Amino acid sequence: MRRRYAFLVSAVSSLGVLLAMLILSGSSNASDSPFLLGIGLPLTGPNATYGTASMESEQLAVDYINSHGGILGHPIKVISWDTKADPATGVAGAHNFVSQNVNAVVGFFNSDVTVPAIRILEQANIPLFGDNPSTPKLASLHLKNFIRLTGDDALEGVIQAQFSIQKLHAKTVVALDDQEAFGEAFAQAFVDEFKKEGGQVLDYEGVDPTANDFSAILTKIASLKPDLFEFSGFYQPAALLIKQARQMGITSTYITDSAVYGDKYLQIAGKAAIGSYMTNNPAATVAATPLQKYLSDSLEMKYNIKVDGIDANAFDAVMAVDYAAQLANSIAPQDLIRVMHDVKFEGATGPASFLADGDRAQVDYTVEQVTPQMAYKTLQEFKEVL
């Protein structure tokens, strides 16, 4: 990685040295002044598992950059904010970042939080490097201060529906979502594409993601006997749905999304997970680039966990800040905004570049299936260009 360093110029007198030191100590560009990085994540609340994992990966990226000299010689200082996955709390966090004059923000994981929070940052000319907020609405806003490392829900939902029709040969489906921005956008894209491909949607409705008992909706699914039932949301309700479905004797094929992928889904669902399908961002799971290997090795060594797409997106969101600063040759927020859509780099998620609306230019997905050995097996790869 190309780095810039500050050089000391020898002075002709002790007075000259003293004056130079005084000037540098008062300058905002001094190499020892920190780069203030705001990180907003759900560290407590219903999505705390995701937020904590994202923070671990983002901190690893901060450590990596700082160990290589910081951002243009400025060590990163993290200012964190717990959004609790709550939009109002996220907005308060955005105001806090503005008041602390951060150079950039990484986050906010939840789409529901990101949409209102980014407006506060936009007004203050502070860039947001999105880790995993995936709602299509963000791209439709055409924000000058926003890019994201994850793909959008609409693309993944379309891929999932195409696989369901073309490979699973499903003709009927019951679709469920978690009534949050991510799940709703994903499921709507899935439903629309499933119909377009000639399938029949027997029912589509939202469920309470905090519930422990899904017997009511599962009784309805049992009566409808769909070829497939689909859930868009996070791993906890996804795992409980399939576990309770199998306990009730429902044999319909089950498919879910990349936010579910990982060990926790397997732990909660148990043997009921076997045979279920899900889309996933595959780039992070293969240590093909130096940053992929660094992240994978670091997560296993420090936290004893395997890297997934959410981890890698979080890591690369911080790396994108560094690359933007190198491109701008500046750490000023307005300069980072000026160049952020032109950033290109090889990260933990593979090659990353961005479109004018902030979306990632190329997003790759796989479809995975849980094997009898309780492992994930890749069935098909999708290489898409937005």
Structural key phrases:
14 strands; alpha/beta; Rossmann fold; disordered N terminus; 386 residues; single chain; seven-stranded mixed sheet; elongated; five-stranded parallel sheet
**Approximate helicity band:** 40-55%
* Multimeric organization: single chain
Instruction: Look at the helices and sheets and give the structural class.
Output: alpha/beta
The largest sheet, given as strand count, sense and whether it forms a barrel, is: 7 strands, mixed
CATH superfamily of the largest domain: Response regulator
Record field, number of beta strands: 14
- Overall radius of gyration: 23 Å
Mean pLDDT: 89
SSE series: HEHEHEHEHEHEHEHEHEHEHHHEEEE
CATH architecture of the largest domain: 3-Layer(aba) Sandwich
The fraction of residues assigned to DSSP E strands is 15-25%
CATH topology of the largest domain: Rossmann fold
Supply the number of helical segments: 13
User: What count of structural domains?
Assistant: 2
Low-confidence runs (pLDDT<50, min 5 residues)? 1-30
